Structures are given as structure tokens and as C-alpha cells.
# Entry
Amino acid sequence: MRFFHTKDKPALEQLRKDMAKDLVNYLDSPAKEKRLAENYTELEQQEDGFSLDFIEPSALYREAYARALYNLGARGDGEGHFFNKRLNDMLEKEPSEKVKRQIERTNLKLNNLRNILSDSAHTRHLYEAFWWIRQAHMLSLAGEAGIDAKAGKALRVQEGKRGYF
# Structure
């Protein structure tokens, strides 16, 4: 994420708002077209919370999107649209308990924000949001073998020291 320049704070701020808006859309919106179960492996379909009714059928990715939204610290898109009502509506539709808990946690944090954005450390918030999406990707590839949490944490710290955020 070295391509983010701190001199361009308005662009980073807008990127945070846009990313938050897109994540809410991925979490909230039903699939516009009929999804076919044959496009997904049997292992994916057996996952707790897997649902073809959402844009993102995998509960693992929906949880990562909720965590990323939590880390972005943006409660609205800056155009008068706030995410709280949509997050509350998601709780009713969401089949996975893990995703529901994360959405509740995210909603609580966003409700407590005084401004649209939590603070001005835009690069750090973007990095943390991308981290959760990256984690979901790694977990989906690893399958039952899982990932080494200790090595992942060390990598996150190492990347932080390199100045990625």
C-alpha cells in the first residue's frame, strides 16, 4: 500500500468511504441473478452460512467484509447515506451466527462514531480492512488445513513496520 500518499488525504478519505459503501452493498444486497449451486464446490456449499441468496454466498467472506467495515471506521458515504439501518436489516436476513455477531459488533462501533469517519489515519484503516479480506482469501484456499495464526500475526506486524500503514 505504498502507493497511498499522505499528501492526498481527500482521495484516501473518499477511498475509505467508497470501500465502506461497496462492502455494505456486498453484505446487504441479494443476488440479482440466479446463482447455480454447481458453480461452487461441495466443501463451499457445506460451509456454515453458505447461501446463494447473497451477492457473496460464502459466510467466510461476508464475515471478512463485516470486519473490514469495522476497521474502516466509516459510518456513511458522506452523501447523507448512513449504514446503520442497512446493517440492522442485514441481521434479520443473515443465516450465519458468526456473521451476525460481527455485524452487531460493527454496527455498535459505527453507532458510536461522532463523525462520518473515525479519524484521519486513512492509510492504516484501509490496510486493516484489506487485511481481513486477505485473511478470508487465505482461509478459503487453505480449507480444512487452516492457516498458521502465529505466522499471520507476525506477518501483519512485519508489514506494519515496513510502513504499509
